[in-house]
TrEMBL record:
<dbReference type="InterPro" id="IPR020904">
    <property type="entry name" value="Sc_DH/Rdtase_CS"/>
</dbReference>
<dbReference type="InterPro" id="IPR036291">
    <property type="entry name" value="NAD(P)-bd_dom_sf"/>
</dbReference>
<protein>
    <submittedName>
        <fullName>SDR family oxidoreductase</fullName>
    </submittedName>
</protein>
<dbReference type="InterPro" id="IPR002347">
    <property type="entry name" value="SDR_fam"/>
</dbReference>
<comment type="similarity">
    <text>Belongs to the short-chain dehydrogenases/reductases (SDR) family.</text>
</comment>
<keyword id="KW-0560">Oxidoreductase</keyword>
<dbReference type="Pfam" id="PF00106">
    <property type="entry name" value="adh_short"/>
</dbReference>
Length: 267
């Protein structure tokens, strides 16, 4: 990974908090030029200042993934400033904490808009530039819940499974164009994800789940993500022993695992 990010233009969504903020922190130490995206401008300015980024080497690009039709025109602003886009890390997203029978269709729609359509809208917008320059690195931050259905997250899991289908097909279409795609599946990482998770009625849960509180440090997660992108890994799982055990059980003993999952707490 040594010097891989030096002077590379890296676009990070969800840069105002958690994993995205930690990615910015790592990258600012490695001499990357950064595009910081999320909805909250004041938080992005805080992240920019705390990491001693300047207007020379960083650009704040406010975007709302839910309002994904507006994303199409943003890459040309990045090209105007930096001349190129090298790496896109589609990290912004929201989770869910509600049983399917308590969840409105509107909440499912919001999860799909933010986590899937918003995510792929940015990728589709930058794709022509990457194809033209015949190189580029795209990463999408999925979840262990994108590898196995997890209770209280029917909508969230669906959005993350959808991303896998999209990016695996995109990877096969664009390998010949020099575009590398890295799908990342984190387990429990210590961030605000559970506080921001949607309840069935669409309101925020506003609570830190114990599993998240005891999760992997977001800096460690960020370092692993950046290493995997630089090494052109296609897939990376960043998880503790509990989630790893869950993935193995789900694969080898699916019926037993369903019974276990229906009884244990997954928060
Ligand atoms: N933490 C975990 O345990 C965990 C596990 C697996 C996967 N992940 C994935 O990791 C990614 C980052 O989550 P995190 O853990 O860092 O959570 P977080 O601390 O809640 O950060 C979420 C980020 O996404 C942005 N975001 C949310 N809705 C948005 C919207 N409509 N438009 C634009 N940006 C939006 C937020 O920025 P604004 O609010 O400023 O818009 C924030 O920067 C997510 O995709 C999540 O699914 C997390």
């Amino acid at each position: 990974m040594k010097n891989f990010y030096q002077n590379k233009v890296v676009w990070v969504t969800g840069a105002s908090s958690g994993i995205g903020e930690s990615i910015v922190k790592e990258l600012s130490n490695q001499g990357a030029k950064l595009v910081l995206s999320a909805r909250r401008k004041e938080e992005l300015i805080r992240v920019q200042k705390e990491n001693l980024l300047t207007d020379e080497n960083s650009l704040i690009m406010i975007l709302d993934l839910e309002d994904y039709s507006k994303i199409k025109n943003l890459p040309k602003l990045v090209i105007k400033k930096f001349g190129t886009i090298d790496v896109v890390i589609n990290n912004g997203g929201i989770s869910q904490r509600s049983y399917a029978h308590d969840t409105s269709l509107n909440t499912y729609e919001k999860l799909m808009k933010v986590n899937f359509f918003g995510n792929i809208a940015l990728t589709l917008a930058v794709l022509p530039y990457l194809q033209k320059q015949r190189k580029g690195w795209i990463s999408s931050i999925s979840s262990v819940a994108g590898k196995m259905g997890v209770p209280l997250r029917t909508g969230y899991s669906a959005t993350k499974f959808a991303l896998t289908g999209f990016y695996e097909a995109l990877r096969a279409e664009n390998d010949k164009n020099g575009i590398k795609i890295c799908l990342v599946y984190p387990g429990f990482i210590r961030t605000n994800i559970s506080k921001n998770a949607l309840l069935g009625d669409g309101n925020r849960q506003n609570k830190l789940d114990p599993a998240i509180q005891n999760g992997i440090d977001s800096r460690e997660c960020a370092r692993k993500i950046l290493k995997a992108i630089a090494n052109e890994k296609q897939e990376l799982i960043i998880a503790g022993s509990r989630e790893k055990l869950g993935l193995s059980f789900n694969k080898f003993f699916p019926r037993l695992f369903t019974k276990i999952l229906s009884k244990v707490s997954v928060t």
